[in-house]
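Inverse folding, one chain.
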């Protein structure tokens, strides 16, 4: 199987970092090393970790973005596999062991995730005797996010081939990396819940609008009609790409309408047209489909 390095970026999480670290130390399959990268905390997080968890390696840096902290931790690590965990989430005790069992049966994997409990404090810590996984394709990642950051194990060889997190993306940087890995390697997701994710008030995942906007930037990188912006050869047919764009935009516009209102959905459609270079005919098709569901959306709304 090889060794596992755990990377935890943290910023002002003195109240929750202990919970995250305890969940790693309780794993039935122990990692080679645990690396916490402090992203400029001012609440005593670093002192708390060094005082209570001497076995943990702590790196510090000026405040940037979570992806920069993850990249530094990955560069410092030595394991053949990299396991990511956010500082306000936890792993269930069998998380690593269950994923290792799947990896041993599928030696060509580049990444493995799992299902997760979300904002559920009554999670089930039962023993996972027979983990079951399903394949997640490159095209699936382009359509929607499947693997949460705190659930994944990444093969170092895959990271060396496709690169690390894009630090220019303040959101959707995880999807961007998953897509690149899935282009070259097989990716699977364990069907059992192995992680509990807790969304804090200042979590970027709460900003649905911002996340959806940067999903479009990730999708635009794979446009076969534009000059390459990635260091990989694109093999998506224009027809398949347009189909993915249509489904991606439609799904997110609908969700924004449900959760944020009509104005946000309108603005998102206008942004999608600008970022993805969608034709007026394409936007009319999306708007027409949404109108069939009773939504009066206008994709021509100007971007603020």
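Residues assigned per position:
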């Amino acid at each position: 199987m090889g060794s596992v390095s755990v990377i935890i970026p943290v910023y002002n999480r003195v109240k929750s970092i202990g919970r995250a670290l305890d969940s790693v130390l309780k794993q039935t399959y122990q990692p080679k090393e645990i690396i916490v990268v402090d992203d400029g905390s001012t609440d005593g997080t670093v002192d708390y970790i060094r005082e209570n968890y001497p076995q943990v390696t702590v790196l510090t840096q000026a405040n940037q973005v979570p992806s920069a902290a993850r990249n530094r931790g990955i560069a410092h690590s030595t394991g053949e596999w990299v396991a990511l965990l956010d500082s306000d989430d936890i792993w269930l005790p069998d998380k690593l062991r269950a994923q290792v069992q799947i990896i041993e049966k599928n030696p060509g994997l580049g990444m493995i995730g799992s299902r997760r409990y979300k904002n559920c404090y009554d999670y089930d810590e039962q023993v996972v005797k027979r983990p079951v996984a399903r394949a997640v394709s490159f095209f699936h990642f382009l359509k929607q996010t499947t693997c949460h950051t705190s659930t994944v194990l990444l093969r170092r060889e895959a990271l060396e081939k496709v690169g690390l997190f894009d630090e220019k993306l303040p959101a959707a940087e995880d999807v961007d990396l998953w897509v690149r890995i899935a282009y070259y390697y097989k990716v699977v997701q364990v069907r059992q819940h192995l992680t509990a994710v807790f969304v804090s008030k200042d979590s970027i995942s709460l900003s649905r609008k911002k996340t959806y906007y940067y999903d479009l930037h990730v999708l635009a990188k794979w446009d076969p009609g534009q000059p390459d912006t990635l260091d990989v050869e694109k093999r998506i047919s224009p027809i398949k790409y347009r189909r993915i764009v249509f489904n991606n935009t439609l799904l997110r516009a609908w969700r924004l309408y449900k959760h944020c209102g009509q104005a946000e959905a309108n603005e998102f459609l206008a942004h999608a047209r600008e970022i993805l270079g969608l034709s007026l005919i394409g936007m009319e098709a999306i708007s027409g489909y949404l109108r069939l569901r009773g939504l009066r959306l206008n994709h021509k709304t100007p971007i603020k």
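The two ends are 50 Å apart (CA to CA). The chain has two domains: 4-200, 207-292.
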